[in-house]
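Appendix C reproduces, verbatim, an entry submitted by the partner laboratory led by Prof. M.T., so that reviewers can inspect both the input and the predicted structure.
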Amino acid sequence: MDRSPTRRVRRFAGMLTTALVAAATLAGCGSEEAPPAPTVPGAAPVEAAAFPVTIDHKYGSTEIKAEPKRIVTVGLTDQDALLAVGVVPVATSEFVGEFPGAIGPWASAKLNGAPLPEVMKGTADPQFEKIASLRPDLILGLYSGLTQEHYDKLAQIAPTVAQPKEFKDYGVPWQESTRRITKAVGRAADGEKVISDVEAKLSQVKQEHPEFAGKSALMATTYQGYFIYGSEDPRSRVLSSLGFVLPPNLDQVIGDKFGANISPERTDLLNVDVLSWIVAGVAEGQATLSKDTLYSGMRVAQEKREVLIDEASPYGAGISFVSPLSVPWVVERLVPQLTAAVDGDPATEVKPVTS
């Protein structure tokens, strides 16, 4: 299941021969010096005594002996944590939005004139040969579903940090990915400042909107019927961070995945105080839901407690791209919609967001 609502089928798979080629490519030019990486003007220096540093992950631990200069992100949102502390990766992986450099509008200002990273596009697999040719000294895959096989091959190219073992694949909270990524590049204190600033923003929103506290909420999409996101999915965590609560038996239905399709017998999960739908166009999504006699008879539909989010818009991309840079940007757009939907008054318009 792809983390992107539009394609939804992206599971990393092994590439046996390309891994060997990648390793050989790297070894063959080991004596050559890699070209300089992009830098952000005015970026803070690395903290004293930051290296060597060891980062734990699903497949063990990785030691980073010195400040990495050329970083490749195979984690689909990992670049934002780097940008937040003034580090630009040499390459990123395509996720949502098809933005230049895979840098969303919430993060582009952080480049501060630095060159865009190269984007690895159109693949369901780590591009081992391409990654090796970029001569990275660090590979980051925290927001990912890397397998043991993928990790082993990437680690032949450069020190690699995979997803944390404490969470489901694609389930790492943005706080934890930010913490580990910024520690890996010698800017742990800067990373903690980024985290605390965003959390302060979220706390302020909760104080300003006491009507959110304790209200039930869910994030879903109309992919192949009803697809709902579990408590460990970053999208769901945004709702929780604003004071909402998720259905209590949500994860029992989903199992060990970030989300799952539900049968008509479990549509009771949709009948919450606020339901956020990620749809292929607001008008199209509304038409689809209106034609569903089972759903349209529920209180959530009759009282118009719905927020419809166009997945093709920058806002729709930001909803799925949960990072320390995207969260404040998304919250500014999402909160007015949630406020209108949670009151349960069908006359209250939930205005769509298109940018």
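The chain has 13 helices and twelve strands. Additional entries are available on request from the coordinating office.
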